[in-house]
What we know:
The protein is an alpha/beta fold. It has helices at residues 3-26, 32-50, 68-72, 80-91, 94-103, 112-122, 140-153, 168-189, 195-218, 228-240, 245-264, 287-297, 320-330, 332-337, 343-355, 370-373, 376-384, 405-421, and strands at 58-61, 76-79, 131-135, 157-160, 274-279, 299-303, 360-366, 390-395. The protein has 2 domains: 3-194, Rossmann fold (3-Layer(aba) Sandwich), CATH 3.40.50.11890; 196-421, Rossmann fold, CATH 3.40.50.11900. It is built from 18 helices and 8 strands. Strand 1, helix 3 (68-72) and strand 2 (76-79) form a beta-alpha-beta unit.
Amino acid sequence: MTTAEHKSEIDLLIRTYRMMDRMNQASPGARLSQTLYYQMLTEYYTRVRNAREEGKLLASHTVFFPTEILYAMDIVPMHTEMTTWLIALFLRQQAELLAKGAELGLAPEICSPHRGVAGIFALNVIPHPDVVLWSNLICDNTAKSGELMMELSNSPGFFLDNPFQNSAGEMSYLVGELEDMVHFLEEKSGRKMDWDKLSEMVARTDQEIELYREICELRKAAPSPMSILGYLELLSADYMFPGQPEAVQYLTQLRDELKEMVQQGKGAVSTERFRLMTLFIPPMHLMSSLDRLFEGLGAVSVVEPLFTRWSEGRLDPAKPLESVAKKSFLIPERRSMYGPLSEQALQDITDSAEQYQIDGAIYWAFMGCRHTCATVRLIKERLSEIDIPMLTVDCDIVDPTINSEEEIQGKLEQFFELLEDR
């Protein structure tokens, strides 16, 4: 591919989001929050595309990386796993990316988003990054993928080492790691950290986390007001836009829409029959199909305890770097995917089942993720203790060849029949 062709991939994503935005605005009764969502994605990838022309440093980074620091330094972030997911969802190019990852020697057992990350770098379907940033959050695949990105892009990089436990000593260690990263970015970008701007980012991130909590509370209503597509939107806002004004605007609008629906007694589906707990992430390429299936069967995902329920705690803008470190201990995914599965995480699943009055749980057992698949039995046994059935669906987030849409639909329909008979 030529450089122009590489740029067209990002252009294609931008055009797709603009088209989705226009379609959403033309649809009667469409959510304004969804319009804001597509506009956010359009602006995000426009910044990625234009970074070099505008003389800005482009930083590729892995999931759960503290991008507030990048935004505060006017560095353009590019989330590698989310970019792979969104290419799979909107452009349907996952087969080419995964095939290229296989050529590089990445086995099928390795997380497919990271195999896809290898593909997008090897095929140069994304702009060349100036720096690569990665950490050990949230798994060993993440920890290793940064090294491969550096090799494929021939770019300098920085590895952020997150401690496993939350203690004063380990918090101090992480703050030191963040200080080292700031010095690295100052050297590579020629820009100094704007600490006042970082404080503003932290204040907005704290506001966003509070909005996530409010949204989770509203979803307890019967009928529940948010569809499964909202789950993907929440992940995108969390992973790509921390501390950004547009994320606050989107989440505020979504919160207000859900609040109005609850007040009017409206649900995400026309007739709510099955209240579900979603464990892990459904296949990206099936999200729209799942939304239609859930609508037809009266099913709604009311809670995703491993991904959308934040731990308690607030961030302090007066201590911006310490707050960035603290945030990494609050993220929902850390409880179940980083270090040993704690009793607290299992109790949170039990509490969620009871508070959200779920009828059943669906565990999307992503075959490339050893961390989550290792917890299937423990979680199923815990839910069984409170008489909640759980369906385990072997799948892949990105790769559609693992199982067909028809096979997954059949399993879901059988599970809903079981729930109906209870």
